[in-house]
Amino acid sequence: MPEIHSYFCENTRDANRLADGLLEAIRFASNGPLSDLVQKIVFPDLSRITDRDDLLSFIRRFASSGYHPCGTAHMGPESDPGAVVDQYGRCFTIDGLAIADASIMPTVPRANTNPTSIMIGEKIGEWIRTQPSQYGL
Prior knowledge:
The protein is an all-alpha fold. It has helices at 12-30, 52-62, 113-130. Helix 1 packs across helix 2 (52-62).
């Protein structure tokens, strides 16, 4: 399986900007009208962050993305050297394998990828259920 290395906060400027943003969010949740709704900040554990270096260490450890990789298994005709699956999600190189997730999307949708991925899974699942021989089953 391929690994994706995003290198979050490798650049000091990125880590500092996230630290500034987190400090602002903590200030916002701790003061003013919102503080009446926030009983306690539990993450990060503020008792363990005593200075900016602690905060930067926290950020470097926990910073990640909510992005959803799409299009990592190119769909196309078998004659296309970059194609991994056909229009039914059937993998060209592994018999009986169907790919039914966001990796076969040609582009990232403008909407949330979750419902689109569910639709792909349901559609290909229905094809497998009704036409198992087409999937080597």
